[in-house]
Design a protein that fits this description.
It is a single chain. The chain is mainly beta. The protein is built from two helices and 17 strands. A hairpin with a 4-residue loop joins strand 2 and strand 3.
Length: 330
Amino acid sequence: MRKIKFTLFLLVGLLVTLTVQAQDPEFTQFYAAPIYTNPAMAGTGTCGGGGRVVLNYRNQWPSLPGTFVTTSASYDQHFDAIGGGVSLLLLDDRAGEGLLKSTTVSAGYSYQLEINRRVAMRFGIEGQYGQRSIDWQKLRFEDQIDPSRGFTGQTAENLNNNVVSYANFAAGALIYTERFYGGLAVHNLIEPNQSFFGNPAAIVPRRFTAHTGVVIPLDGRKIPESTISPNVLFMLQNQFTQMNIGFYYNKGPLVTGLWFRQTFGEFGNSDALMALVGFRKDKFKFGYSLDLTVSDARAAAPASHEISTGIEWCAKKPSRKYRKLSCPDF
């Protein structure tokens, strides 16, 4: 019964998308998914211009049948020869136990500009190829119902097209010092169409992201062992607006954090309280975060889970031009 209810719910959602625009997935650990957050962060690893590989996994509201699962894998690295960083991002987003799938492959470049000895900027651009698919065989329609035997007939619905492919682009900018960081990004620059029925209104609207923060040392060391980093992220996509505000606390290899997510406008509400715990050892990192729903939806969807892991390696010959970004990567 729960699966049938979810199938009907998802079917209604698909029909609604004929006139309503789609939204992108998001990560609570947005700095642990740096390339997804802002393409200008390509090549901003912490080891002298070396490389970085990051894996992210998010299970949205697992208490619901047919949950939403998002996974991503990214690589980025700085190269002096091209004056900046390159990136590669793979993203897989699934809803309804794989009934609806979205897969994208993105490649990007960020140019590093040194303003002075203390301030640097990066400007990034990203090209993307995406594919969205649906398994019509998992859906049930009204004309398939036999009054005595249930769903036994064949539907007369036109279900020939089950895959949509599209191109997409994103751009971003980043400014940072040894302790301060801030950035702007715009995704879905050309607002691609993802309709299975060719509806020109079924686009993915532009997603605007602004993020900033500061790293505050809590001890007197030149390379602090203990820091706190207040930060905020603001996102706007069509009629949906939200803000994440909180902080990271680092003590040696231990990382903790706490945020609050608030949405605004027509769909405004206090959404979730988000807690993080993680650790970093040498160039390996791991983080786990829990989203506790505080809105009216908490009875049906009390929590979401997210895991990030990554590894970095140093450049064979440390770059003299490379400017390290000190923002937390959890």
